[in-house]
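Worked problem 6 (solution included).
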Amino acid sequence: MAKRISLREFQRDLSERLVSARRGEGGQALLGIESGADDLPGGRHWLIDLADSGEVAPLPQLTPAPLTKPWFAGIANIRGVLYSVVDFSAWRGGAPTPINAQARLLLVGARHGINTALLIRRALGLRPQLQMHATADAGVPAGAAETPWLGGRFKDAQDVIWTQLRIPALLADPNYLDIAL
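Solution. The predicted structure is:
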């Protein structure tokens, strides 16, 4: 049986591992997240380069924004800074992300000068890049012209398929930026 730890301990450990990985300690790692279903573009499991990933925050109260597309979840106040929140699953055409204790905000745009966050089902922690192997379809994904934010596909030791999310391409995608009805 897995050891139970508190959310605070998990967040502290994840934060320490993120800082350690950014300093280059312990090999290169990628942040793993879960969002959506396997039948959506990119699937359910995602890898994000730590240089492009931001903070993983617990889901605060979201303020709805009128006259926006259904996948725009609202505005979040994180330590006095407002972030636009996009439901990553719904944005890709899937079901809305369930709002529960595991749901998280991934603050992805701060490094790029955009206060935006992705609403995700859950954060899965760091994944060592050395343990990932490119899959047979790791080349240019189908529909890459329409989805430049889709990166390569990888398989881990448990045969889970992961898709790399290219944050700069996502933030530049006109479909991501256009939230108005």
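Discussion: The chain has one domain: 7-177.
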